Amino acid sequence: MPENIYLDYNATTPVLKEVRQEIQRILKESWGNPSSSHALGQAAKRELEKARKRLASFINCEPCEIVFTSGGTESNNMAIMGAALRHSSKGKHLITTRIEHPSVLNPFVHLMEQGFEVDFVGPGRDGIVEPKKLETFIRPDTIFCSVMLANNETGAIQPVQEIGRICKRHNIIFHTDAAQAVGKIPVDVKALGVDLLTVAGHKLYAPKGIGALYVRNEIELENILFGAGQERGLRPGTEPVPGACALGKACEVLEERLEEEVKRQKTLRELLFELLEGDVPDLKRFVPGEMCLPNTLSISFPGISGARLLEEVPSILASTGAACHDRSVTVSHVLSAMGVERETALGMVRFSLGIFTTETEIKEAAGEIIQAAKRLVRGGQG
Question: What is the mean pLDDT of residues 352-362?
């Protein structure tokens, strides 16, 4: 069996060695409850605050503006539900996009069932939401807007900074789901002009089960969880110290390496595309490189099922743009929102690179994929 080549970093990332070591240290030395007043509890509290500072430094905010959560889904729910419910007396109109992650879309659907009105703005065929188009949906009773920073399927980077300026002009609370962006590109909450920002630990080399929500100091959220007063009262419960410290450590490591990794991964991504394009006629790229995460390549193989292609090369670990359910095939809601034809969507494969991806792996993966594509075309099994 050939060794696996992992090209699915947008799904999840391996945990860095430095992060594993940090977890082990915390579990051994600082396992106390940070709410306890004794020495062991206070040691845990200090480690928790160190982690908060590390994350705050990484996204350029104050440590007190960081709320640790269990991950991206909880952060998104906390931001969307919390903002809408707290400020509903000012209006009940909300705006988001049709390409958001389900952990954003579903809270909006739930709020619609509670009497809120929601507009879902569609992207262009390049997967980018046009800020001026979004602005046309704003009403006097619009109180909240959520637009992701980078799309998990296509890698398309949204013009969040410009949308943030629009929201500020209209006095609208603005949230961005940055789960796919933090750790892959520089993220600065002040430069982006966001009020709320979601971080997911397992997307940036920390373990699953830890995340964070940036909450600008002036922003008030309604509690959706109830208990004691931890994490500004927004996320009650004993703080997940090992996970928070793991996330903080990952941010510290990435802060030193990010600029270099952005360049390296972009180079490898373009190499993969050039190799595939040279041997696969009419290959379709969904998002131009300059508008895309540096690690992400989403392409469609004409006349070939993406799922069938990956079955043919089981050592290449990547994702497709369609899912099988009870013998039927469902096309990604993101590709549908972009107006991608069904056959093209079925041929989509997303390759996402990371810190451990090498040039040798890219060349080997390209070779195997090209041969598999040719076999499927010859055999009429696309």
Answer: 98
